[in-house]
Amino acid sequence: MSVTPHLRLPPTDRILSSRTGWTRAHWEATADRMLDALTPYATPGFAQYRLPGRGSWSGVVSDGLEGFARSFLLAACRIAGAGGAVDPTLTERYAAGLAAGTDPASGEAWPRLTDCSQQMVEAASVAVALHETRPWIWDRLDAKVQERVVDWFSGFVGGRTWDNNWRLFQVVSEQFLASVGAPYSAPDIEEGLDRIEDWYVGDGWYTDGDGRNFDYYIGWAMHLYPLLWARIAGAGPDGGRAAVYRQRLSRFLEDYQHFFGADGAPVHQGRSLTYRFAALAPVWMGALADCTPLAPGLTRRLASGTLRHFAERGVPDERGLLTLGWYDTFLPSTQPYSGPASPYWASKGFLGLLLPPDHEVWTARELPLPVEESDTYLAMPAPGWLLHGTRHDGIVRLVNHGSDHHPPAPDPADLEAGADPDRGAGEDDPHYTKLAYSTATAPESAPHALARTVDGHLALLAPDGTASRRRRIHPLRCEDRVASSWSAARLPGDEHAYRVETTSVLHGPWEVRVHRVEAPEGAVVREGGHAVAHARSPFASSGPDWAHARTADGLSSALVALYGWDGGAEGAAVARDAESNAYGPHSAVPYLRSAPRAGGRSIHVSLVVLSRDSVHPEALRTAVRVRVDADSVLLTFLDGRTVEA
Fold first, then answer.
1. Percent helix, strand and coil across the chain, each to the nearest 5
2. Beta sheet of 546-550, edge-to-edge order
3. DSSP 235
């Protein structure tokens, strides 16, 4: 696959970068193209960039500020990384924007910072960008403009933010105020940094606020901003905080390097995926803070592979713009707070430009990703995830038994006393509550697809076809190649919460799922595999106990019944949809379906396959022997490995 020509990139270098061909020059050229493409959308004083696309719920002025702030972060990486040796119009544009944006009489002034306002998010980007470009922008601003900028930032002092990663926007912004000798609140900074300690769960993992909120915000926010704060604060006494943050990021990156496929794609999970290669922010910060466990050649290979992955798929687009979506525009990958400039948080993915050109990250020869060297398995008990990658096709799969993006669950004692296990939980989110995600697939996420909720889900079906949802996830186990959890299933008109317990066992490219299901009389059990999507409609086939979907480029998703599925003629099939998947307009999901149950408990065992190999579901039916006892299931694989679930 070739990179779109409108990026005007230099020739590839297959000696320095044998895997991707990309060098620092490719990063600079991409950044320049993205910045140049914004100028037609600037307001006269360059204080706002009003981009085409759906507006956010914050309004057009806030969206315009977002365009300035997030692109300023990209410009800052480019300016500081070049030691100021860039086209002078770039620094002039952002200096002018600071003057106009803080001038109430300019006609394009930014909204004031008020409690929990979107402006707080954007102010943090402005603060970081001003710090990194201080010799070329801040120090050259007119004193009156500096005063107005300080006055605008002062809205943070004593202000209230949302109690999640937003606490860190206040921390870095007020630290910038301190760095320029302006009034600030030391307690605001201390309390914000103290608060994230409540969300640290070990092994380098935070949750973003209370609950089990594990996603890319852990990397591009919870790890990133504390170390950006340390960069702004400098070498003064910090109570040892910076050292702790560096240790945690180092531990996080030990796991995080496994989240990227051989083609550069990140695992497609969590909200705000339209930020795309912002997923690289913690990788670059590890190098910037000198705390990465990754070799320099691996850091660049990972980062360049991801940026090139998107460039090969039309990101940025022919106008040089980042759209609201993943590859093309795809609004179900966004949130209501996402405006047309929101994707420019991807600027965080360019933090590596802050490293000097002679840094080892830019001069070392590329090294292979973990998944390019061998099959990989990784258990992460903190988020409740398993990762498994296969060298022959480069796909990384994430098995989810821990992240649901809901408030904290009731205490175990309350659950034993009969408390509702979903108390306080809202609707399920397809980017969090699926059983599995990958670097080659995305969940079905358009509103019309959510009504069916087939892919990556074990559902009870009511007689009218309504499917139960997987809302709050209660982790049970995560070790080696096995993880398990339970959730509550509900059906219309039935107040009872039926327990669905699932154990996932990994073996090569396979995931075996063992489900212990409580269900009322007459309910049907249905399970879906990975959704595959493409520009052309996937091929589909099925038999009595298997279903298979394959895209035109050879990506296969299959689901095979191993035990407990007795659906007869309707037992296995492929569900199709259109315009419901970020990976392509035509999607397909293999699924299994039981006959109506007699009620009570039942065991269902299935084999889940996602592969670029040819897949023969009939043969896979004999690949795993299943023995079910009263309280356990024993799995025996062809190589003799046995696992008790």
1. 35, 20, 45
2. 474-479, 482-489, 498-507, 510-519, 600-611, 556-563, 546-550, 539-543
3. T
Q: Mean pLDDT in runs of 10 for the chain (645 residues)?
A: 78 96 98 97 98 94 97 98 97 98 97 97 98 98 98 97 97 98 97 98 97 97 98 89 97 98 98 97 98 98 98 96 96 92 98 98 98 96 97 97 93 84 89 97 92 91 89 95 96 90 95 96 94 97 94 97 80 95 97 89 96 92 91 92 92
Rounded Cα distance, 91 and 462, in Å: 61
**Surface-to-core class of residue 170, CB atoms within 10 Å of its CB (0-12 exposed, 13-18 middle, 19+ buried):** buried
Give the type of residue at 36.
D
Cβ–Cβ < 8 Å for 498, 488: yes
pTM of the model: 0.96
Instruction: Decide: residue 520, CB within 10 A, 0-12 exposed, 13-18 middle, 19+ buried.
Output: middle
Task: Give bridge partners of residue 266 from the DSSP assignment.
Answer: 260
Q: 572 phi and psi, to 5 degrees?
A: -150, 140
Residue 499 φ/ψ, nearest 5 degrees: -85, 130
Burial degree of 464 (CB within 10 A; 0-12, 13-18, 19+):
exposed
As a three-state string, the secondary structure of 539-608 is EEEEECCEEEEECCCCCEEEEEEEECCCCHHHCEEEEEEEEEECCEEEEEEEEEECCCCCCEEEEEEEEE
Closest-CA residue to 366 (of 304, 310, 308): 304
Q: Distance (Å, rounded) from C-alpha 505 to C-alpha 479?
A: 10
Question: Cα(116)–Cα(322) distance, rounded to whole angstroms?
Answer: 26
Query: What's the distance, Cα to Cα, between the start and end of the chain in Å?
Result: 42
